[in-house]
Write a structure and sequence with these properties.
Blueprint lengths: L1 H19 L6 H8 L3 H7 L10 H13 L8 H19 L2 H13 L12 H15 L9 H21 L6 H12 L7
Helix pairs in contact: 1-2, 4-5, 5-7, 5-9, 6-8, 7-8, 8-9
Length: 191
């Protein structure tokens, strides 16, 4: 029950951050929309700013959902490309580029926002599993370790999101990723 309540608060908050903007969303808005008490909110979070550090949780839930919906018959490389497109489309439809810009830059300067880079995240374990399988099956390169390939992949994903944010969300992140990401990831394929 407690996990569900916390997730409900996070989901509601991110929905409001997207629809209303982070600055315009109040704790009272979150409480009202989530249909919880003020005490319940403060049991899980000290402030609205605390919710910003939950970005990795929101994204990991999406990766977990997608793992259960993987199309059958995809090569490991195509699975990685599909996954990137799906997550970037999700981000485009559910996250304000201004807030993502702030959170990405905060990863560099604030230790409290380093959750996106935590290698114990579901995201990293999932990508690593795909790459290990791809390497064992001979589809993906053996010139890099799995760890290096995961870093290469996540660096490419961050680069596309950063480009989208720097251009004020003026193009479709999902469609841009669909066109560009396969070219960026060619180095993962076995020569």
């Amino acid at each position: 029950m407690a996990k569900n309540t916390r997730e409900k608060i996070i989901k509601t908050a991110w929905k409001l951050f997207y629809e209303e903007g982070f600055a315009e969303t109040t704790i009272n808005d979150i409480i009202r929309e989530a249909d919880i008490s003020k005490g319940t909110f403060y049991y899980y979070f000290n402030s609205k700013d605390d919710l910003l550090s939950t970005l990795s949780e929101v994204l990991d839930r999406e990766y977990e959902r997608l793992e259960g919906e993987e199309p059958e018959g995809l090569s490991c490389f195509d699975k990685l490309i599909w996954l990137n497109y799906e997550v970037h489309s999700f981000m485009e439809k559910n996250m304000d580029y201004r807030l993502l810009s702030y959170l990405y830059s905060a990863q560099i300067v604030k230790e409290s926002f380093s959750a996106l880079l935590n290698r114990n995240r579901y995201y990293y374990r999932y990508i690593e599993k795909i790459m290990e399988h791809g390497q064992k099956s001979g589809e993906l390169t053996d010139e890099m370790s799995v760890s290096e390939m995961v870093r290469y992949f996540s660096m490419g994903e961050r680069a596309l999101v950063t480009e989208w944010c720097m251009n004020n969300g003026s193009f479709s992140l999902g469609e841009f990723s669909k066109r560009i990401f396969p070219k960026l990831m060619q180095g993962l394929k076995k020569a």
